[in-house]
Amino acid sequence: MRLRIDAASTVPLYQQIHDQIILGLAAGELRPDETLPAVRQLADELNVNMLTVAKGYNLLKTEGYLISDRRQGTRVAADFQADKLFMQSLQEQLHLLTAAAKIRGLSVAELQQIITTQYQGFEQGE
């Protein structure tokens, strides 16, 4: 998987790294136990500070998407569970997005269709 960042974006670089890795996992571009580039190597490839990559990786580790050790480096976790912390975060994010959709006049059916289309896209590897 090739990560691309946009230095002109308002989204912080570490967040872009984080988000692209999650999208890569959902699309099947990254597999469980797959080794990721070392922090230094990815920082060089993206032309960013090592601390930026480390912050993105650490966030993914905290969320349970990545694991690392000195011998095997950083790799994709083998098992992902919808634990209590994930479900709480999901509820909070969906709450805000649902509120914004309601304010903008989307119907429940339209919102459900958007979610269904997104989910199916990941199932199809898009």
Automatic annotation (TrEMBL):
InterPro entries: Tscrpt_reg_HTH_GntR, WH-like_DNA-bd_sf, WH_DNA-bd_sf. Residues 11-79 form the HTH gntR-type domain. Signal peptide: none annotated. It comes from the Bacteria. Keywords: DNA-binding, Transcription, Transcription regulation. SUPFAM superfamilies: Winged helix' DNA-binding domain. This is GntR family transcriptional regulator. It comes from Loigolactobacillus zhaoyuanensis. The lineage of its organism: Bacteria, Bacillati, Bacillota, Bacilli, Lactobacillales.
